[in-house]
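Example for tutorial group B:
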């Protein structure tokens, strides 16, 4: 029962499949397009593989370079994903007050949402990990075969709120993620805050009372 629900969670979330190899090999000496810390509010949409209907979730994501992320879905159901370089937690809040929630705890390595942002830190420039094309102010980032194998994403398309000047991550209006299994997920941002100060334990999930634990 617990694992069945978490499979659904992984589909709804920014689901990246990878390993620790990429985190160890990427050289992040670019223009720091992705800030060291940020908090972004989003609406995420994708097509259900079962019904063909569009599913929409809302929430926010917090990021701390390198390899730390807190991804919270607040609507329609509450789901929390927290990951640091050592441990990853997936938490489903109970549907009814008084019932137990569910948390899946794993060693970080094969479910690594943060790596997408770690890689993009090098900026909108061609490098060994991806090529960038500007098509009518839509920036198409096509990942190399090795990166595709690591994160399960073929390409990403970034749209910005401005067309002139130096583009920064805070100017992103939406990101389309094209997965290798042909799924497309769109994240529309309503607000992006950079240089956010996080509490020391922000990327360590505190398990609520009355929670079923699985690993």
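The residue assignment follows.
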């Amino acid at each position: 029962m617990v694992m069945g629900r978490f499979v659904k969670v992984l589909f709804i979330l920014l689901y990246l499949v990878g390993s620790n190899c990429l985190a160890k090999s990427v050289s992040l000496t670019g223009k720091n397009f992705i800030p060291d810390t940020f908090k972004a509010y989003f609406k995420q949409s994708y097509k259900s593989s079962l019904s063909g209907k569009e599913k929409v979730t809302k929430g926010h994501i917090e990021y701390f370079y390198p390899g730390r992320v807190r991804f919270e879905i607040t609507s329609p159901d509450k789901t929390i994903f927290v990951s640091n370089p050592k441990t990853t937690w997936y938490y489903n809040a109970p549907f009814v007050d008084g019932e137990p929630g569910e948390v899946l705890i794993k060693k970080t390595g094969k479910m690594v949402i943060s790596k997408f942002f770690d890689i993009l830190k090098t900026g909108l420039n061609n490098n060994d990990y991806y090529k960038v094309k500007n098509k009518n102010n839509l920036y198409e980032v096509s990942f190399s075969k090795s990166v595709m194998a690591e994160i399960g994403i073929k390409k990403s398309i970034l749209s910005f709120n401005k067309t002139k000047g130096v583009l920064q991550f805070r100017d992103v209006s939406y990101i389309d993620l094209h997965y290798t299994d042909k799924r497309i997920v769109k994240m529309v941002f309503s607000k992006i805050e950079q240089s956010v100060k996080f509490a020391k334990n922000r990327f360590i999930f505190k398990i609520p009372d009355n929670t079923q634990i699985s690993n």
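The first strand starts at residue 37 and ends at 47. Compare this with the pattern of hydrophobic and polar residues in the output above.
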